[in-house]
Amino acid sequence: MIEILIIFIKIVFALVWFLLLTLYLTWAERKESAVIQDRIGANRADILGLRIIGLFQPIADAIKFVFKEDFTPRFSKKFLHTMAPFISFFFVAITISAIPFGDVLRIGGREIKLQVLDINVGLLFILAMLSLGIYGIILGGWASNNRYTLIGGMRGAAQLISYEVALGLSLVGVIMIYPSLRLSDIVHTQGELLFGFLPKWGIFLQPLALLIFFFAALAETKRVPFDLPEGENEIIGFFTEYSGLKWGLFMMTDFMEIIIVSTLLTTLFFGGWQVPWLASDGFHFPWGGQWLLPHGIVISFQVLSFNIKVIFFCWLQILIRWTYPRFRYDQVMDLGWKLLIPLSLVNIVGTGVIMSL
């Protein structure tokens, strides 16, 4: 019974963290784009007269989406039209269960992993769930019974499938270096040191894989400069016939994908919750000094480290979205098939050669 309660609490905490960060990424994007474009950005939403640079804007947006008219075209396939955004939302939301937020928390002689689901194929589980999100895009375009949204859905499917190949191949080198698909094992291995002082993070062992993964993951989020499936400004995307809460779910899914990409970058290439030279009992510095800390402080450092890294990569993706123009569709396909996939194969061969020396 206690184990079930612990799992339930971890699920609640993970979802609350995930959804709150998703909501406030919408605020962060408004403020960051405003800074880039020399504007003020969101600064009106307040509660009880407490106006704090528009921090309550996400709450106002959520209320608006819930009560806004939910229009469904009479010519659409209504059941599938309704299910599409929920499918996209569900398969992205469930991936957070395999992400490790920290090491092991010890309370009253009980060890609690700061991870909802520590399975031995955690990396494959995340890739599989993200791949299933494609069905929401295809169904959204097709069930709307609109030729233009169907084209948007087909663009989305082609783009996501193309870049999933490069994304998956980029991780082969990572798996060769850290021979495990269990994300907690990958993070623990990155806690070791190279040459006695350098953290064994993926960025140092697989720099080419990091670049390939990052660009492929950007394409998977379907945002500028890879927003051909949505075409927010000029062309018609797959969710044109959506409004209200269902449109809000599609929008939230995009921001949730930003967070998942950031957590994967953190977990696979930047040590996850690891802090350089921080062990379970405190800091042990390469030059011989040490700083012993209580267990609770160590766990706090780990969780804080994980969150700082994730927030940084979320900020970086928003910065890219508001800096670069959209690629042409042929450029998007060429980048995936003619550059990223060949580079991924080169990285796999190079990793194998270096490991055999």
Report on the structure:
The chain is mainly alpha-helical. It has one domain. The protein is 62% helix and 6% strand. It has helices at residues 2-36, 57-67, 78-93, 122-132, 134-143, 147-177, 183-189, 202-205, 207-220, 244-269, 295-321, 329-356, and strands at residues 104-107, 110-113, 193-194, 198-199, 278-279, 282-284, 290-292. It has a three-stranded antiparallel β-sheet with strand order 5-6-7, with no helix packed on it. Strand 5 (278-279) and strand 6 form a beta hairpin. Helix 1 packs across helix 2, helix 6 (147-177) packs parallel to helix 12 and helix 10 (244-269) crosses helix 11. The longest helix has 35 residues, at 2-36. The relative contact order is 0.14. The model has no long low-confidence stretch (mean pLDDT 93).
Q: Key terms for this structure?
A:
two-stranded antiparallel ribbon, single chain, 12 helices, globular, 357 residues, mainly alpha
Total discrete domains:
1
Tell me the distance between the termini.
51 Å
Radius of gyration: 22 Å
What gross morphology would you assign?
globular
- In spatial order, strands of the major sheet run 5-6-7
Number of strands: 7
Largest sheet: 3 strands, antiparallel
User: Please, how many helices?
Assistant: 12
Spell the H/E element sequence. HHHEEHHHHEEHHHEEEHH
User: How confident overall, as mean pLDDT?
Assistant: 93
Uncertain runs are: none
What proportion of the residues is helical, as a percent range? 55-70%
Strand-pairing-aware structural class:
mainly alpha
Please indicate the percent range of residues in DSSP E strands (runs of 2 or more).
5-15%
